[in-house]
Amino acid sequence: MKVCMKKIFLFVILLYFTSGNSQTPESDEENMEQFLLHGKLIAKEGQSEQLADILLQASELVATAKGCIVYVVSRNPGEPQAVYVTEIWESKEDHANSLHVEGVKELITKAMPLLDQQPRSGHQLEVLGGAGI
Question: 23 pLDDT exceeds 50?
Answer without folding.
Answer: no
